[in-house]
Amino acid sequence: MSSPSAAPETGPERPLPLDPDQRLAAEAIAASVLVLAGPGTGKTTTLVGRYRHLVESGTPPARIFVSTFTVRAAAELHRRIGDSGGETVRRLPIGTLHSLAARLLTRFPPPGCPPVRIFDDQACGRLIARHRLYHSDETKRPQDLFGAYKDRLLDPAAAMAEAKAKNEPDLIEAATLYARYQEVLSAEGGFDFGDLIVALVRGMESDPAYRARIAGFFDHLLIDEFQDINPAQERMLRLLRDQGAFLWAVGDDDQCLYAWRSADPAFILGFEKEWPDPALFRLSRNYRSTATIVDAAQALIGGNRNRHAKSLAAQNPSRLPVTVTGLEDDEDEAAYVLRVVRGLAGKGVPWHEMAVLYRAGHVGSRLQIALAEAGVPVVVRGAGEFWQLTPVRLTAALIRLIANPGDMEARALLGHGKRVERLLEQAPDKIDESAPWPALCRQVGRLVSSTARPPGEEGVQWRDLCYAAADLAAETGGLDQFIASVEEQRRSLRAAEAGGDAVVLSTIHGAKGLEWAAVVVAGCEDELLPHESAPDIEEERRLMYVAVTRARRWLVLSFVAERRKRALPSPFLRELLAGLDPDQIRWNDDDTRRRVQGALRSADTPKRAAFGDRTKPPPKPRKSGGGTKPRGTRAGRV
Ligand SMILES: Nc1ncnc2c1ncn2[C@@H]1O[C@H](COP(=O)(O)OP(=O)(O)OP(=O)(O)O)[C@@H](O)[C@H]1O
């Protein structure tokens, strides 16, 4: 999706004139069209152009479905498309692929399919709790387990067959729960989000008459972020395409960030082979960023092997340097980021034209607090407000409860359920109530971290959030100061968030499709970015790529030497800076330069080697002034 939603709400946008390549793509006549292009090349702008072209050529807006990855992106597209063809913008069929399925199912229920009654995440959670459909490995969230089956179009029988073939007790248990869940869900007449696409696909696959009834309801399907579709979504689009709908999609395999949620970049990589009457268009002018940023981004992404080659030529020739700043610890980093945003504001850059992005939610904790306390207006996106994140809330509430067993508010904050019961059971053994305040806080952080910690990357983030909360608590003088400081921080955040003109603080995932004049990427450290538990180094590199390509003019990259343990600069820093001349890099000091340039050696360890090509330095690309040629060739909501 696209861009300036960082700005405060405005009315519909005036359409941008398309460049010749964008126009060709927007006016393409083929059954299946893919516009494959890098960041900032105007994919979403071209999608809006396609929409206008169709409407101007006589297609009623109601017969064009525009799909976006998230509900928020749909709202943004409504704004960009504006009031077309006299239809009320609000009622135009623009939404996620789940909402496409919901519309079709409601309008055309498949034979034998009960009326669609959508259960949202909370309703599903209540159903799961009522029937106690929890995996014995409690770290596995039931909704995620069941959703992953649906993303792959596996019904309970297929899930069980797969589990038995692998002969893994964990999987057999999951498949058994899945079967039970589907039983109780359908007994209540409920459809969860994943069911919507599954039901539509099943109906269309099994009944030609039903397929024929759906045919022609939408003449055109316009799909944004095609790189992130999962197998169920791909199947649905293919069936609709087979019934005569024209598919027109934009995407960038280099921005696929959801492989962990069944998104499969193979769909975009294999488009020309797999789709009927395919036409592939490429856009290569980057309208967003300076030549420096484009060069750096190209050098970075050149390190990935599994990708389509794309050229990217910056339309803004500016060679304004990228700033790279090494700091001592996260407190220093927060103070630094505060100086950066104030400095930019001093130059007249509006707050909403600045973003601070990070890979993991806990990196945002100090930043949120430092900016909000200094009175800088902020809006927190992605993971959300620090003290409300589950591991943080549990840590803070348990610290309070242990320090004062009569604290009823803390007991309420802790909540209920098996996890909380286990925490309370283990607390007397694991926590020495008479320990000094900082030690007590850290003991609680360790307990919450080790109890009910989710597996994989989520578990590492859980641990980091618990430790970050415990550290912040430990730094206050004691219980009363802790309660007061959390209150104060939350009040500052609420006040800071009240205004529309605010600095965006976001995880990189939450920044997808957006752009700002200035972007700070904080926490550019090895084991954080790339994340220590991420299974796929190429997806980590794509994350860094998405982060840096959100910037139009100013790009600031910061890292610290110590974030609870000694930290090394991210090897990605060196990779991306390899695309720049020395005068395009501003180091805060020589030590930072030495540390970054030494980062590749540190990455060259047996542990790192497990990530395959991660230590391979990318070649220096040509400058984008003449067109840089790179080398080598849970889903949305209704
Ligand atoms: N033809 C054009 N002329 C001038 N500016 C353009 C043109 N096309 C796009 N832009 C501008 O380029 C920026 C990026 O456009 P857009 O968000 O559509 O790109 P995108 O390819 O969808 O980006 P990403 O994939 O990185 O999210 C926007 O600020 C947009 O206004």
UniProtKB/TrEMBL annotation:
This enzyme's EC code(s): 5.6.2.4
Highest taxon of source: Bacteria
InterPro entries referenced in this protein's UniProt entry, alphabetically: DExx_box_DNA_helicase_dom_sf, DNA_helicase_UvrD-like_C, DNA_helicase_UvrD/REP, P-loop_NTPase, UvrD-like_ATP-bd
Matches recorded under Pfam families: UvrD-helicase (PF00580), UvrD_C (PF13361)
Binding site for ATP: A37, G38, P39, G40, T41, G42, K43, T44
Domain UvrD-like helicase C-terminal, first and last residues per copy: 291-513
Any one of the GO BP annotations: recombinational repair
CC terms in the record's Gene Ontology section: cytosol; DNA helicase complex
Enzyme class: isomerase
Reactions it catalyzes: Couples ATP hydrolysis with the unwinding of duplex DNA by translocating in the 3'-5' direction; ATP + H2O = ADP + phosphate + H(+)
GO MF, one annotated term: ATP hydrolysis activity
Sorted UniProt keywords: ATP-binding, Helicase, Hydrolase, Isomerase, Nucleotide-binding
Domain UvrD-like helicase ATP-binding: 16-290
Stored PANTHER family: DNA 3'-5' HELICASE, UVRD / RECB / PCRA DNA HELICASE FAMILY MEMBER
Name of the molecule in the record: DNA 3'-5' helicase
